[in-house]
Amino acid sequence: MTAAVAGQGRLVLQNIVRVYTSGGGFFAPKTVVDAVAGVSITLEPGETLGIVGESGSGKSTLGRIAAGIEGPSSGTVTLDGKAYAPIGSAAWRRERRGVQMVFQNPSKALDPRMSIGNQIEEAMQAHGIIRGNGRTARMEEMLALVGLPGMGARFAHQLSGGQQQRAVIARALVLEPKLVVCDEAVSALDVSVQAQIINLLNDLKARFGIGYLFISHDLGVVRHISDRIAVMQKGVIVETGNAAEVFANPQHAYTRSLLAAVPAATPAERRARERRSA
Ligand SMILES: Nc1ncnc2c1ncn2[C@@H]1O[C@H](COP(=O)(O)OP(=O)(O)O)[C@@H](O)[C@H]1O
Ligand SMILES: [Mg+2]
Question: Whose CA is nearest to atom 1 of ligand 1?
Answer without folding.
Answer: 20
